[in-house]
TrEMBL record:
Domain Dienelactone hydrolase: 20-89
Single GO MF descriptor: hydrolase activity
Keyword annotations: Hydrolase
Database matches in InterPro entries: AB_hydrolase_fold (IPR029058), Dienelactn_hydro (IPR002925)
Any one Pfam family match given in the protein's UniProt record, by short name: DLH
Name of this chain's protein: Dienelactone hydrolase
Domain of life: Bacteria
Species lineage: Bacteria, Pseudomonadati, Pseudomonadota, Alphaproteobacteria, Rhodobacterales
Length: 90
């Protein structure tokens, strides 16, 4: 896999990512599940991964889902734009 996108957190397989792999994380701020300490710990467990954090103000944990109260239209738009740009670099 050329890169990874983490949305609203990391998953169980994420610690097996290779060194220098580009990884983007798209996380609400504040997020009750995935705060800055969570990703600092995750990055410490994945030395060498090229982690790029994107935090989004104004929405909740599920800020991308228009069917949920956490949805935030501007954050969702910006997140989609950033993800497409990231994918175009791989």
């Amino acid at each position: 896999m050329a890169g990874a996108i983490l949305i609203a957190g990391a998953c169980e397989w994420a610690p097996s990512l290779r060194r220098a792999m580009p990884v983007e994380a798209h996380i609400a701020r504040p997020d009750p599940f995935d705060d800055d300490a969570y990703f600092a710990e995750w990055a410490g467990a994945n030395p060498g991964v090229d982690l790029r954090m994107h935090r989004y103000e104004g929405g909740g944990h599920y800020f991308l889902d228009p069917a949920l109260p956490d949805y935030h239209a501007e954050s969702a738009r910006l997140c989609r734009e950033r993800m497409l740009s990231f994918l175009n670099t791989l």
